From TrEMBL:
GO terms for molecular function: FAD binding; oxidoreductase activity. This is Xanthine dehydrogenase family protein subunit M. Keywords: FAD, Flavoprotein, Oxidoreductase. InterPro entries: CO_DH_flav_C, CO_DH_flav_C_dom_sf, Diverse_Substr_Oxidored, FAD-bd_PCMH, FAD-bd_PCMH-like_sf, FAD-bd_PCMH_sub1, FAD-bd_PCMH_sub2, Mopterin_DH_FAD-bd. Residues 1-170 form the FAD-binding PCMH-type domain. The keyword Flavoprotein applies. It comes from Nonomuraea diastatica. It comes from the Bacteria.
Length: 286
């Protein structure tokens, strides 16, 4: 097996262009499991661990630009203010060791429907920055990134460089159902992002369909009917939960049944909207 170790982004892009079959490795928390269990045996590994810029984040054009290699621990410690939904999801990933190495870029590269970063990225209208040496940069909205089970819009000669997420303008929450409290892949998950200034609510469903997805009809319902000054109308809350559940298209598998997942999505949708709404009203009163 060849092991390529670029030290700059340009070298990394050149390596991927010359060897499109090379498998990128960032934190290795997915790739090393696949190698150890002989699930794949790539001819070439492209180690991105020496490309320092991938582990940095900063503000750019009014958005947080989070390098693809920024580990979950950094998101939790440094980005809880601007990106509370993503930080909350990051806290639920694996164990401290996994959070120290695992990255949002790796979660996107794996494109598992159960990946914990996807629902908050969808709810917050994130955009994925990808690049190839020969065709340059593409900015892909999260909604267009996930194409199928473990399939994304990334081309073989492209690498993920960063994720762009606008700082939260309202409460955000992430909720995950698992068979225990830690070290667990989601049975299903849900994220919500309130945008009081735009009178909009973003949603993200995880592990509830072949790809992470938004509940568009539920979002449209709230855009039409939410009174942003008033307590939540119980009938509207119930309808929101029903439409989120209806957006799910899950399967039965070892982690849970489709019927349970549909039910749980509805519960998490109602619960997270209630939490977020209480925060929203509390902020207005303060
Ligand atoms: C014990 C354990 C517990 C886990 N728990 C969770 C959990 O609770 N929630 C969860 O979501 N995940 C979990 N995971 C999976 C994994 O930790 C996450 O998916 C993590 O985000 C992967 O990040 P990484 O940097 O380690 O990726 P890697 O393993 O380095 O890469 C993952 C994939 O992304 C590709 N890739 C990496 N970087 C790039 C790039 N810059 N451009 C293009 N492609 C790239 C790789 O080729 C590979 O296909 C767990 C894994 C383990 C081993």
């Amino acid at each position: 097996m060849d092991f390529l170790r670029p030290t700059t982004w340009e070298e990394a892009l050149a390596a991927k262009a010359d060897r499109p079959d090379a498998v990128p490795i960032q934190g290795g928390t997915d790739v090393m499991v696949e190698l150890n269990f002989d699930m794949r045996r790539p001819a070439t590994l492209l180690d991105l661990g020496q490309v320092a810029e991938l582990r940095a984040w900063g503000m750019e054009g009014g958005a947080c630009r989070v390098g693809a290699g920024v580990p979950y621990t950094t998101i939790i410690e440094e980005l809880g203010g601007p990106l509370p939904g993503l930080a909350q999801a990051s806290r639920t990933v694996g164990s401290p060791q996994i959070r120290n190495r695992g990255s949002v870029g790796g979660n996107l590269g794996a494109a598992s429907p159960a990946g914990d970063s996807h629902p908050p990225l969808l709810a917050a209208d994130a955009v994925i920055e990808v690049e190839s040496r020969d065709r340059g940069v593409r900015m892909i909205p999260a909604t267009a990134f996930y194409l199928g089970v473990k399939r994304s819009a990334l081309e073989p000669d492209e690498l993920i460089r960063a994720v762009h997420v606008r700082p939260a303008t309202g409460p955000q929450y992430f909720s995950k159902v698992g068979t225990r409290n830690a070290m667990v892949i989601a049975v299903c998950s849900f994220a919500i992002a309130l945008r009081p200034g735009e009178r909009r609510v973003g949603t993200g469903l995880g592990s509830a369909a072949p790809t992470p997805r938004r509940a568009y009809e539920a979002e449209e319902l709230l855009a039409r009917e939410l009174d942003w000054q008033a307590p939540l109308d119980p009938a509207l809350l119930r309808r929101f939960g029903e439409l989120c559940a209806a957006a799910a298209a899950p399967i039965d598998d070892v982690r849970g049944t489709a019927a349970y997942r549909v039910h749980a999505i509805g519960v998490m949708a109602r619960r997270t909207l209630t939490w977020a709404w209480n925060d929203h009203l509390g902020r207005r009163a303060a």
